[in-house]
Amino acid sequence: MRPQQIRSTDLAARGAGKVRSSAKRALILASIAIALLAASAPSLAGASSLTQSRNPVSAQDLAPATDNQNGLYTLDGWGGVHPVGSAPSVAGSPSFGFDIARGLVTRSDHRSGYVLDGWGGIHPFGGAPFVTGGPYWLGWDIARGIALRADGVSGYVLDGFGGIHPFGGAPSVLDSPSWGWDIGRGIVLRPDGVSGYVLDGWGGVHPFGGAPWLAGSPYWPGWDIARALVLNTTGGGGYVLDGWGGIHPIGNSLPATGGSFWLGWDIARGMALWSTGPSTQPGGWVIDGWGGVHSFGGARVQSQSAFWLGWDIVRGLGGSNGSGGSRHYNVPPPPADPCQTGGVTYCVLNPNVTQATIYQTICVSGWTSTVRPPESYTYALKVKQIAAEGLPGGPSNYEEDHRMPLELGGAPWDVMNLSPESPPSPNPKDSSENSLRYQVCGGQLTLLQAQQQMVSTWLAAYPWYRQ
Description:
elongated; disordered N terminus; four-stranded antiparallel beta sheet; 6 helices; alpha+beta; 2 domains; 23 strands; Neuraminidase; 467 residues; 13% helix
């Protein structure tokens, strides 16, 4: 199911173009690139992991937890940590010189913390001590999330395959998920510091370390759209953030109110819960890829200190027990072609229509008329197919039908996606096509789900659709 809370965008006009401020460019050009990352990273110890070259430290006494409304920070892809609202500036954040930052966590003082890079390196800022141990994958952008235990120096790193790797003395996790492909998107810990949850890109929330299952998690099979996961203070519930800005309660959490929603635009990047907010009106903040900070529930409105108009460069929001927001650029394995079932070709898809392009293609009124072939082409093909298949009657008894309709991403001109259909329009299949398109564009179904329904309901059920 798609999100229920639809709100107007707080972003500047989307058509502003990818405008980078000259100040940001100067900062970026002045930063040290890959060499600095390599220098700050630990030395290799084995083919796929290493122990970081940090001085061992003991857990220090942290300052008492404070209201995180004054302790929120934005992470940009190059490693910069930027205060939100009245949070103080912090020193020592990394500067990689390229887009490799993948996660941000703050300690309980809300003034210090750690940045995770895509290779697994953990970089302190704001006076946080260096950490020991942890994974490291030199040259491989595969780290996807970081979670910190209460001691402020130990925790876990999540890799894209679902592996959970301890650092700083945290105990090993033996029941982490394992998918075999890059779909892990976030990790959070419960108050006990040894159990928690992993978020996958389809919205699934997976317990580890003895954590109980949380009911109500959203799920979008085949669609990598989940962007962040946060837990409430009890660890018995929380929220999943999708890329459009939808906030979905899980476990014992109440539905969130307010917030921003960008229909069809994958631009939400991270989320933090208000640490001292009332349980009857949970609140927090969502950060978009340009740096805009959007409050929901009872949380106060915050002003952002960093904003990159037209540039999707934000990778996370730190300030509560949350993880995720690090938008990755690895392409997951494509789902099975719904037109190919059991060795039978029922239809052919238009490669220009995907879940990411539906609001530029099939959901635009009149779009199908721009790709529909002329009647001269479809009529001539219909005559040939009627004769070749030995169908009764003449051309007037049939409509040359797109098996997978143009409204659901069918190929316009491919003869394997065109067949004589009787009776001609209007007919029940037309109604089904329109209904499925409406559900896709309204967010009730993914494009893949609608295509699968079309194949199972109409194409696989009638033998004349087979080739």
